[in-house]
Amino acid sequence: MDGGARRQIPIVCPGHSRPLSEVAYCPHATPNPQAVGDHFLLISGCHDKLPMLRCGRSGNWIGTFEGHKGAVWSAKLNEDGTKAITGSGDFSAKLWDAITGDNLATYEHKHIVKSVEFIKHGAWVATGGQEKILRVYDVTSIEKSTPLFEMMCDEGIRKIVEIPDRPFVTVVTGDTAGNIVVWNVETQTRVATMSVDRAGVMDMEASRGGQILTVAAGSKVYFFDTTSWTLVFDVSMPITFTAEGGASLHPTLDRFIAGGSDTWVRVFAYEGGKGKELECHKGHHGPVRCLRYAPNGESFATGSEDGTIRVWQTDLSSVHATSVSLE
To answer: Which regions are annotated as WD repeats (predicted)?
Structure first.
């Protein structure tokens, strides 16, 4: 670890009573005249059946979405933070009004829903899980609970992400056998297929305007160029992602974070050092199950088996603050 990295005392966000399954920010930080700096939201999924909404900067609790009868495996917000979608072990996905907390729609499935995602600028949601079916629903017609599209997958789906601003609605699935499949949703066809560790995809994130797909699987983090669907490089980790964990690429700086089979939260160099460890933070009392950078990159949230979320500040002293162009 770089000796210049400072020791951090993170913001601790209690409230959950079981292991965390996902933390996700509202994709865009939006100016708020009553807030200091940018205002954005953080949602969490947890095995306690109660997804929660928080202020992304302070970690302060805003509300809880009540209604699921099983572990919530996935939770996401739309672009402006007005709606939420959650996927659960109760064989359902639920659409929520993120302002009032009301349940707007329930999409019934025949098995556990492991991943959900808003797509097409929030007009649709995609769901997937152990049924091995990628489903897409139109959330602008809440009374319609039947899917617009259904795509059969080879294995159970663990993660779904959208690649934005493409000529067609592009969704990527990561499955339990390590397959990464790129889908044209509107034609329900496969565009590309890549493979990683056979232990399966544990986490997946599209970042930097959708230009980079970050994948955590086995004991490696993989980075794919989404314009050509080729591997940029992969990095061997001091942890594994076989049971939990993930990785997140900083929006602009030359670094990424990863956590998994132990209690440490690590920061690594991206292209400039290709996996050199820059920071290692202690705070959680159980394995790190999920983590994400905030949309402005100034902090990142981690969720653990210990039932807490911790918000850490980005340490600019640990690496040269080299930014990348997103144009």
So the answer is: 65-106, 106-147, 281-322
66's tokens: 């009540």
Read off the amino acid at residue 75: A
Euclidean distance between CA atoms 98 and 65, whole angstroms? 8
Q: How far apart are CA 172 and CA 160, in angstroms?
A: 6
**Three-state DSSP state, 101:** coil
* 143 contact partners, CB below 8 Å, separation of at least 6: 105
C-beta separation of 299 from 311 below 8 A: yes
- Laid out side by side, the sheet with 170-175 consists of 157-163, 170-175, 179-184, 189-195
Q: Is 318 helix (H, G, I), strand (E, B) or coil?
A: helix
Residues 6+ apart with CB under 8 A from 228: none
What is the per-residue pLDDT across 101-138, written as a single tens digit (0 to 9) for each? 999 999 999 999 999 999 999 999 999 999 999 999 99
Q: Which residue matches tokens 């329930």?
A: 106
At 39, list the tokens.
Answer: 């205002």
Ramachandran quadrant class, 74 (left: phi over 0; alpha: psi -120 to 50; beta: rest): beta
Query: Closest Cα partner for 157 from 205, 193, 118, 114?
Result: 114
Contact 302, 309 (CB under 8 A): yes
Residues 161-218 have pLDDT tens digits of 999 999 999 999 999 999 999 999 999 999 999 999 999 999 999 999 999 999 999 9
